[in-house]
Amino acid sequence: MAADPAFDEVASILADRGIDAIDCAIVLGTGLGAVAEDVQDAIRIPYAELPGFPRGEVSGHARQLCYGTLHGRKVLIYQGRAHYYEGGDSTVMRVPLGVLTAFGSPPLVLTNAAGSLSAEMRPGSLALITDHINLNGPNPLIGDRGDGRFVPMVDAYDPHLRGRFKRAAEKAALSLGEGVYMWFTGPSFETPAEIRMAKVLGADLVGMSTVPEVILARRCGLRVAGLSIVTNMGAGLHGGTPHHTETRDVASLAAGALRRLLRAFLSEL
Ligand code: HPA
């Protein structure tokens, strides 16, 4: 998968549309699309125009890429991802992520909306993902070939990028929690019993995305950072009864904090 002709095909389309250097790639999760409004001299391309990119939509996701300058850096922003729960395909983000290798493998920042299992990470706050738990079964590298599929996952969430985000949070005077993210396929939310299980297993955050993307990105040799926007407490905790409207609305409100964090991160990159 490391050198896939599909990546070159998309890379040449992007190059024809004026995309050359990329300093940082960012995937925006549910309700976070507004972050891309800050991009200057933006080139926007709907995923529908790019082979191998996901089709369809989820409310809260625009499904286009946006390239341009953000706080002095060239960024490629994916406004909206596709999730495993849409069609049962854990490789659905393979081409959008893999194409980054044709642009010098810039750091990849994956954002998501997540439920919190920790009283210290309240709805509306931001958290850095330190590690993940995947007990769902699907792994996007199933069916991949060669020894490269045995991807080491120690430090999958790059310690150097994590350090940069911590410094950026200090600079922006933002509190930034951190913890282990556990992937549930969704699209139903977890039961209170599942949330209790996740806590016992060592999770601090739960969500329906990101984990397959991190595995795919590591397979391609990309350095990854993961940021969660805490939109709710996990089901059953402190009366947590998560639903999608809340996820979308709280994430939109917290997008301002994410913008400030990214500003501080990018300006030091
Ligand atoms: N569970 C799963 N995914 C989520 C949640 C949650 O509580 N909140 C936002 N995305």
TrEMBL record:
Homotrimer. Belongs to the PNP/MTAP phosphorylase family. InterPro entries: Nucleoside_phosphorylase_d (IPR000845), Nucleoside_phosphorylase_sf (IPR035994), PUNP (IPR011269), Purine_phosphorylase (IPR011268). Its EC number is 2.4.2.1. Pfam families: PNP_UDP_1. Residues 25-266 form the Nucleoside phosphorylase domain. It comes from the Bacteria. SUPFAM superfamilies: Purine and uridine phosphorylases. It is an enzyme of class 2 (transferase). Pathway: Purine metabolism; purine nucleoside salvage. This is Purine nucleoside phosphorylase. The purine nucleoside phosphorylases catalyze the phosphorolytic breakdown of the N-glycosidic bond in the beta-(deoxy)ribonucleoside molecules, with the formation of the corresponding free purine bases and pentose-1-phosphate. Keywords: Glycosyltransferase, Transferase. It comes from Bosea robiniae.
